[in-house]
Amino acid sequence: MRFADVLRGEAAKAWTLRSLRWTILVTVVASLAFCLVDAGPVTGLSTPETAGVYAMANFSFFAAIAGVLIASSEYGGGQLTTTALAVPRRGRTLAAKLLLSAIIATAQGLILAVFIATIQQFPLGEQSVYATGTAGALLGSLVLAVCSWTAIGILSTSIAVIIRSQTIAPASMIVLTFGGTPLMMALPIFQYLPTNAGVLMYIDRANQTSDWLNPPDITVPAAGVTLTAWCIAAVVAATGVLRRRDIGARQASTE
């Protein structure tokens, strides 16, 4: 079976998941609602170049949930055994799931990024990044934020394959997403957690972390490398676990 056929099959299975469809829909609705409510004159720690960008960190758990659902949906009812029988090359199945997860997470991130780049900026008028010619700073941050969402999706799918739990896997990623920042504020070592490294790729550190007791000192390139390393390690681990896991395929027979 060609990889394109495997990918098409994984996409068809994903489309049948009501929970995944709801996650994507809620991502769109929540992103739009936030930007509509939050749009207005910049105040506090925000600047026109960073207006709304922190929402990319706050809402990144949507990418984690979608990534977990793509893998965890087959744990019940023997679907994983059926998949293994249809596609004996398990590495190809995992690759298709990871690619699908990356596509969905990227789409989720792009939706919020587009809302931030438009809805958040329009009320600023002459102060907007488009009027002042500083759009590059905002768009650059949003591009890195979308890349971070893509990595979170891949990481979440890999963790779901490793843990093989429909509750522990999403709970772990949500805790990392929400609990990472307090940990990072307490001890600098936690800036190397994958979700924290992803946030440090695009957050405005000068205004939003400078007053911390232990402000992060990891550079943007180093944060990107850290997040990439976590993803590679998770994918390698997931590949090894899936190839060696007894999921009943060897015990099945056809007549």
Automatic annotation (TrEMBL):
Segments passing through the bilayer: 20-39, 51-71, 98-119, 139-162, 174-193, 218-242
Keyword Magnesium: no
Keywords annotated in UniProt: Membrane, Transmembrane, Transmembrane helix
Protein name: ABC transporter permease subunit
Native species: Brevibacterium ammoniilyticum
